[in-house]
Every structure is written in C-alpha cells, then in structure tokens.
C-alpha cells in the first residue's frame, strides 16, 4: 500500500472507527467525537430544515452525535470560514448551496481562499426558488405582479434571504429581462424574511420553495411562479416563470455538504455514500419531497463540477447588475 493510501485509510479509521459497534448512549456522552454540520444561515430556513432532517439519521448511522450549528453572518462567509479552517478529518462539514460560488464573486476578499478551501461531499437536494407574495397585495399571477412593479417602480418591498444570494441574482435576472425595479430588503436567512412577509412588513420574497411550502398550502402566502424549467412536485399548481411570460428563464438552487479541502478522499467518499444512503431511505425521501425538495445524493465529483460550472454564469449576472458586497 502506498503512503498516501495508508494515510487515507488511517484517516477513515480515526474519524469513523467503531461507528457500527458504538452504542448511541456511549456516543452521546462523547461530545468531543461529534460530527458538526455548520449551517451558515438562520435557524428555520430551508438549509436549516435539511440539516436537521439529516442529522438524527446520520447520528444513528455513525453512532455518534451529529450537531447542527447555525453560524450566521456576512452572507454565509462566517460559517464557511469556520469550516475552511476546521480540522480536515470529516468531523466538520458545511451545509452549503450556490452561495459558496456567489460569495467568491461578490466579496473582494474572504477569510478563506474560495478556490482552494473546500471539496464537495454531495449535492443532497435541488430546489426551485419560488416567488411568493402576501395575499392582500392583490396579485394572483406573475403577470399581475410584474404589472404592479412596473406601475410602482422601486416601491414593492421584496425580502431577500441574503444580500447577493441566489434569490437576489435570480430576481436581478428577471428585473433586467422585464425592465422592472423593486426595493430589496436583505435578511440573514429565509426564516426571518418569511416571518416578515407573513407579518405584512414586506410585500414579497423570492425564496427556496421548501421554506414556504406549508404557508402556500395553507393560503397564508400566495405563490406566483417557480424559477426552474419544471414545476415542483410539492406545489404542482404553481407555474414556472417560463410559462408565465419569461421564456427560457431557469434557475435551480441546490443544497449539499462540503468539507475542508484537505479532507482525505477516502473520508469524503464514505461521507458521500452515507449521506446518499440516508437521503434515499424511503421515509426521508418522502419527507423531503413533500417539503418541496428533489432528492439527488450526488457523488463528490458531480458536486465539484456544479461548483465549477455555476461560477461564470452567476459572475456575469452579478457584474451586469452591479451587485457588490465587501
């Protein structure tokens, strides 16, 4: 066995030793051996819900605690920085999405090297962004929304789950294509944006579908359109933007797990297989699909390819719209 292979095998042994045999009670008392999933947005949003769906199942599979840690701030870069600097042994993971790619464009400097800090573990799910409004705004379709925004340029308050996030970029794509302008209100995640919309403090939000599925079903929010080229199984009555007068429009967001770049390949591949197995369990898959996710469970290589492919597309939109952070 080569030296590199020996090191990788040793790393797997260190991180996952005894998982099959370890009792849950013993693992629960060994907090130093916990696996930490850093969620870089506020609790209650779609990323947080996904992490908390996976955590107990992964804990059962690995025989040790899996802790969800919300580290909020700086458009997700605070949480990402903690993972980038963590020990690369598989014990600290980032619940990430396209924000990792967007931040590499939006920030002039980051507390980590965006091109070298991470490696993909798995793209867990994909999800449409969905445009929802408060019911008393008086619009029922995307066409009515666009007409209202044109009539009142800069007045409609649209909450963003994060400044410069995928919702911001997607709505800028819409705005430039249709010649409309809204008043963007940035939040620290999907949950606070949703709460303010439910409370009538803002008019609309473009947000990950899983964050608002229940509110749409209950009639507390009105859904106008999804950003993907296909309708969502969880809300099949909601049309796509392409069906609603914006031909060719397509933005699909994703959420998954990434690890520090120096994490050994053998560790990353085991993590990926185990997370994919949890995702494909019938009960978990049904729960996630009911919430609005489409389950993927990709290989590390497929997630790395997504990270590489998305960068030029989003960079061009950000540059054209003049979106900039620090």
Structure characterization notes:
The structure is a single chain. The protein has 326 residues and is α/β, with parallel strands linked by helices. It has two domains: 189 residues, Bordetella uptake gene, domain 1 (D-Maltodextrin-Binding Protein, domain 2, 3-Layer(aba) Sandwich), CATH 3.40.190.150; 117 residues, 3-Layer(aba) Sandwich (D-Maltodextrin-Binding Protein, domain 2). Helices cover 42% and strands 19% of the residues. Strands 1, 2, 3, 4, 5, 6, 7, 8, 9 and 10 form a ten-stranded mixed beta sheet that branches. Helix 1 crosses helix 10 and helix 7 packs across helix 12. The longest helix is centred in the C-terminal third of the chain and has 22 residues. The protein is globular. Keywords: Signal. Belongs to the UPF0065 (bug) family. Pfam families: TctC.
Q: How are the SSEs ordered, and which strands pair?
A:
Blueprint: H1 3-16, H2 24-28, E1 35-39, H3 46-62, E2 66-70, H4 77-84, E3 92-97, H5 99-106, E4 118-133, H6 142-151, E5 157-160, H7 166-178, E6 183-186, H8 190-198, E7 204-208, H9 213-217, E8 222-226, E9 252-260, H10 265-280, H11 282-291, E10 294-295, H12 300-321
Parallel strand pairs: 1-2, 1-3, 5-6, 5-7
Antiparallel strand pairs: 3-9, 4-7, 4-8, 4-9, 4-10
Q: What CATH architecture of the largest domain do you see?
A: 3-Layer(aba) Sandwich
Number of E-type strands: 10
- What is the strand content? 15-25%
CATH topology of the largest domain: D-Maltodextrin-Binding Protein, domain 2
Question: Residue-averaged pLDDT, rounded?
Answer: 89
Helix and strand succession?
A: HHEHEHEHEHEHEHEHEEHHEH
* The CATH class of the largest domain: Alpha Beta
